[in-house]
Amino acid sequence: AQANIGVVGLAVMGSNLARNLASREGNTVAVFNRSYSRTELLTSEHPEAGFIASETIEDFVASLTTPRTAIIMVQAGKGTDAVISQLSALFEPGDIIVDGGNADFQDTIRREKENSAKGLNFVGAGISGGEEGALHGPSIMPGGSVEAYKTLGPILESIAAIIDGVPCVTHIGTDGAGHFVKMIHNGIEYADMQLIAEAYDLLRRVGGHSPAAIADIFAEWNTGELNSYLIEITAEILRQVDPKTDKPFIDIVLDEAGSKGTGVWTVQNSLDLGVPVGGIAEAVFARAVSAHPEQRGPVRATLTARPEIAIVGDTFQEDVRQALYASKIVAYAQGFDAIIAGAVKYGWSIDKGAIATIWRGGCIIRAQFLNRIVDAYNNDPSIPSLLVDKYFADAVATSEAAWRRVVSTAALSGVPVPGFGSSLSYFDSLASERLPAALVQGQRDYFGAHTYKRVDMPGTFHTLWSGDRSEVATEGSSH
Ligand code: 6PG
Q1: pLDDT surpasses 70 at 67
Q2: How far is the CA of 132 from the centre of ligand 1 (A)?
């Protein structure tokens, strides 16, 4: 046995992670893949990595020094379960199995329970950053036991992205905490992408700018408070010209967005937790709407005319930038609310500032902006919403008028802005003194005797709607 760490599953993410590990001082990396040809390809293309390659899982396990540590990088779901059961049959108490895929955190909770019953450490670790991140430095969100992190932490720290000398990895919490937080990261990623897409659409259809001109606008925005990986790559994508047709690349791509599931999971779990993540949900739904051409075409065909595009002035571009920033703040506020609610429900002790810290580099949502979230939670870890933090409250106040102009201009022009619109409504809901929820309570009480509370006295009440309409105090709950 000579390898201190092993990787199982050598598709692009696994191969790149293995190469990243091998490039760090002190690591010897064992590799295994179900079909050996892929292992051979990796070892022959990268002799410099000094991989220890095995043809069987038994040899792979034998090549690891104890406590054995293996990172599984296979497709989430059944494939992961199969590899886990192979490894757990051969591993000994104290050994560490890491699942680096985009697993459902409920699966991770189950797998951790099953493996810890055998004395094995099971760590579900969210890894973000795509192929390049895996190779040069991802952001890593490990769950699992504190004990496992003692061995695993230094290895993960050695391969993670580094920002201001701080590696983008922290022990998130026990069992499924890492995969839960990675799931929310992806939900925020969906919202971020959708908001940027809406900004592009407005600049193009209302602002009348070409993709190349919008690329320049995004590149400029990337030098300010919106500075982020997603804004940076957006500029590059919009600047791309299709070599086959010489058209803008964006115009030759079919406008039907795919997804692999983590955004949907974020919304499903937030619904269960009762956390309003409308901005994230609208991003998921926007992809779903786009993927229904059989409805889009026929609905468009029913229209005899489209609304006229509103005439906008020179300030429109800056308005869109501010609307994007305000909506982005809402998306992060909602995402962190989901993390907080998940931590309460599943019993994780999480450090919100530490999560914002490890998202500053390596991951898809990496951005300058995360520093402001770190500050917010450092100033007051118990703030009821990020929107209450002074910096964010000021930022939203500064952008508010522009945000409203953009959403109304979009509505008048017939340009869909589900992300901008829902984020603004969310903000207005939180900011309203009275909500029409009172009427909803009245309706619930009318048809189902679901009861309500009063603003002026404690207790729970019901009005005898089909009787004399007097009010009675009840034992029930109005919720
Ligand atoms: C990351 C990404 C990644 C995700 C892809 C695809 O953090 O590196 O979130 O994990 O799988 O972005 O997601 P969709 O196919 O659902 O868009």
Answers
A1: yes
A2: 13
If pLDDT is split at 50, 70 and 90, which confidence band does 183 have? very high
The catalytic site residues sit at 182, 189
Substitution candidate for ligand 1 out of 364, 365, 366 with most atoms within 8 A of CB = 364
- Atom 9 of ligand 1 has which residue's CA nearest to it? 186
Ligand 1: which atom is nearest the Cα of residue 365? 7
Of 184, 186, 224, nearest in space to 325 by CA: 224
Whole-angstrom distance, CA of residue 251 vs CA of residue 371? 35
The DSSP element (H or E) to which 353 belongs, if any, is: helix 352-358
The mean pLDDT of the chain is 97
The verdict on whether residue 13 carries a ligand-binding annotation is yes
pLDDT per residue as tens digits for the range 323-349: 999 999 999 999 999 999 999 999 999
Q: Is 34 annotated as a binding residue?
A: yes
Token pair listed for 421: 């619109």
Lowest mean pLDDT among 76-85, 119-128, 235-244, 322-331: 76-85
Which residues line ligand 1 at a C-beta cut-off of 6 Å?
A: 102, 128-130, 186, 189, 258-260, 262-263, 363-364
Strand partners, 175: none
Q: Let me know if 81 is exposed, middle or buried by CB neighbors in 10 A (0-12, 13-18, 19+).
A: middle
Answer yes or no: pTM beyond 0.80. Answer: yes
